[in-house]
Design a protein that fits this description.
heterodimer; A: alpha+beta; OB fold (Dihydrolipoamide Acetyltransferase, E2P); six-stranded antiparallel beta sheet; three-stranded antiparallel beta sheet; 21% helix; globular; B: alpha+beta; Gyrase A, domain 2; Elongation Factor Tu (Ef-tu), domain 3; six-stranded antiparallel beta barrel; 21 strands
Chain lengths: 131, 356
């Protein structure tokens, strides 16, 4: 079974978001997404200070076989990117919800979190994709 | 519905992740493409390539027919078991398929691609009309490729000695098994063509001997590092083989040998483009269809990947002549620098490319 931490929220496009107490949030891709991609070899990170709208293309992860877009699940300004991924994109494979985080954002509208999937809802989506 | 090979259950047991390839459900990898790739470069891996198409020819006119059908010349096959790489061209000089043809006791055996099967069989039906020969698509046979520096040492005893004695690009029969010293990885190894009923046992023996199951993903990264063409990428029905580094496979001599496509490619023999290797200078991954810009014009990437052996991105690209040492590649709107090199990156586990 693929890990889907209960405390996170999810986008249908397989990103997770973890909201901190200070109103900022970390974003990455799910365990299911990294497993489907296989060994990651390159991550194109967003630019710090860039302002994203919810659902906007924020970067790219590439495995040996294919490239896949990452979308920002929420609107906001990029505060930091995980520079460790430049030399070690495989961190996303080994620890997708921890050391494999991709960028950190300051949410401009916390209401948008309500539009995202809960862990249960994301799990249901994966079950449906399987069929 | 996609077709499954005889090894479907074995692939499931090995944890295969699947891909549809030319109407076949085939393993793309069994967990880690990277590990499979390294296994072939350092030890041994095995690939189920039973989806490929085996065709046997015999009869009085088999040889003269193949000399007409193929751009390479089967008279070069002096001894039984000798193998030859060739293009099969259409009248316009485009590549219908690339293939390996072997001389066998009473005729020839040809192995063509999976994705081109219907087209090739239709072409053979048309071209063999009225000829005194028989040909048969051998869909009763399976193919297992065993590749890597230790591939031959790990073969079952029943075929090991024969395999060790074979020269590169030759084959021999061991009972009903056809053992060929060929491959698509740039490593030592064999491709074994055998009855459907035998392949599960061979697979299991090799698994016990520590030969790693490898999927089509690693097959592609290995062939690309080895600078080998893939049908539909480096060549197709519209491209002259001279634009795909296949000039060496065209037998122009004897001059009076008429083969399909000969006059068409002779007319276009003055090349305008060349297939070369690229190495990306920065981060990122080169991919097929990305546009390449050089000081002498525009080109295109035909195949690109991250090279697990070199740990950087490599590609095959068709570039305008004259060549330049460096080019720029459009990767999602950013122009990134790449070095132009000989189109062969890795052989026998070692880096071999040279700057061009």
């Amino acid at each position: 079974m693929t890990a889907i931490p209960r405390e996170l929220k999810y986008a249908a496009s397989h990103e997770w978001i973890r909201v901190e107490e200070d109103g900022t949030a970390y974003i990455g891709i799910t365990e299911h997404a990294q497993a489907a991609m296989g060994d990651l070899v390159y991550v194109e990170l967003p630019d710090v200070e860039h302002e994203f709208a919810a659902g906007e293309e924020a970067g790219v992860v590439e495995s040996v076989k294919a490239a896949s877009d990452i979308y920002s699940p929420v609107s906001g300004e990029v505060l930091a990117v995980n520079e460790a991924l430049e030399d070690a994109p495989e961190l996303i494979n080994s620890d997708p919800y921890g050391d494999g985080w991709i960028f950190r954002i300051r949410l401009s509208d916390t209401e948008e979190l309500n539009d995202l999937l809960t862990a249960d809802e994301y799990e249901e989506q994966l079950a449906e994709e399987d069929h | 519905m996609s077709q499954k090979t005889q090894l479907y259950n074995k692939h499931c047991e090995a944890g295969a992740k699947w891909v549809d390839f030319g109407g076949w459900q085939m393993p793309i990898h069994y967990g880690s493409l990277m590990e499979e790739h390294h296994a072939v470069r350092t030890v041994a891996g095995m690939f189920d390539v039973s989806h490929m198409t085996v065709i046997d020819f015999n009869g009085a006119e088999a040889e003269s027919f193949l000399r007409f059908l193929l751009a390479n010349d089967v008279v070069k096959l002096k001894n039984i078991g000798d193998a030859l790489y060739s293009a099969m061209l259409n009248e316009a000089g485009g590549v219908i398929d690339d293939l390996i043809v072997y001389r066998v006791a009473n005729g020839f055996r040809m192995v063509v691609n999976a994705g081109t099967r219907a087209k090739v069989l239709a072409w053979l039906t048309q071209q063999t009309q009225g000829k005194n020969l028989q040909w048969r698509h051998r869909d009763d046979l399976a193919i297992l490729a065993v590749q890597g520096p230790e591939a031959i040492a790990r073969l079952p005893d029943s075929i090991k000695a024969v395999a060790q004695g074979l020269k590169y690009f030759s084959a021999a029969w061991v009972d009903h098994w056809f053992v060929a010293r060929t491959g698509y990885t740039g490593e030592q190894g064999v491709e074994i063509i055998l009855p459907h009923t035998d392949i599960e046992v061979l697979w299991q023996d090799l698994l016990v001997a520590g030969v790693k199951p490898c999927g089509l993903g690693a097959r592609d990264t290995l062939r690309l590092e080895a600078g080998m063409n893939l049908y539909g990428h480096e060549m197709d029905d519209t491209l002259s083989p001279l634009k795909a580094n296949m000039g060496w496979t065209i037998a122009w001599q004897p001059e009076d040998r008429l083969f399909i496509g000969r006059s068409a490619i002779a007319e276009r023999a003055q090349p305008t483009h060349q297939l070369v290797g690229l190495i990306l200078q920065g981060r990122g991954v080169l991919r097929a269809e990305q546009v390449v810009k050089s000081a002498t014009g525009q080109g295109v990437i035909t195949s690109g990947t991250f090279s697990p052996t070199l740990e950087q991105s490599i590609a095959l690209a068709r570039l305008p002549l004259p060549l330049t040492h460096e080019v720029e590649v459009d990767i999602r709107g950013r122009w990134q620098s790449a070095q132009v090199v000989t189109p062969c990156f890795v052989r026998d586990g070692k880096q071999v490319h040279q700057p061009l």
